Amino acid sequence: MRVGDIYVFYDHDETYKKVKIINVRGYEQIEMTGIQEKYVEADVVDFEYTDSSTRKKYGSELYQSKRFRKIDREPHCWSCKDNLNEKTDHICPTCGWIVCPNDGGCKCDKP
Ligand SMILES: [Zn+2]
Ligand SMILES: [Zn+2]
Asked: How close is the Cα of 44 to the center of ligand 1, in Å?
């Protein structure tokens, strides 16, 4: 995960949103295991919402691979096979796939 990457983020309202990574910082937290303290290292990701469908602008989240999904290098529509653009095209809030600007295709419509 690098600054400037575009990711699909599964937000806390249980919809998918497109975000751009603006900062990745290390973070340590202390976890108590019984009577012992253990330091746990994790990454905290700061990001900017890039979809106009949300009013939120920025977010921070402990990095978890199940919440962040990188968009494929050369995405294309499953239906019309047209190339999609991870930077400009919208993300379907329900399935997290890029919505095809030609036919509106996403995973929800896939048979
Ligand atoms: Zn299409
Ligand atoms: Zn969808």
From this structure: 35
Q: Ligand 1 centroid vs 100 CA: distance in angstroms?
A: 5
- Which distant-in-sequence residues (6+ apart) come within 8 Å of 3 by Cβ? 21, 22, 23, 24
Which ligand is nearest the CA of 104, by number?
Answer: 1
For residue 61, report the distance from its CA to the centre of ligand 2, in Å: 24
Q: Where are the domains of the chain?
A: 1-70, 74-111
Q: Is 8 exposed, middle or buried (0-12, 13-18, 19+ CB in 10 A)?
A: buried
pLDDT tens, position by position, 35-88: 888 777 778 999 999 976 678 899 999 888 889 998 877 899 999 999 999 888
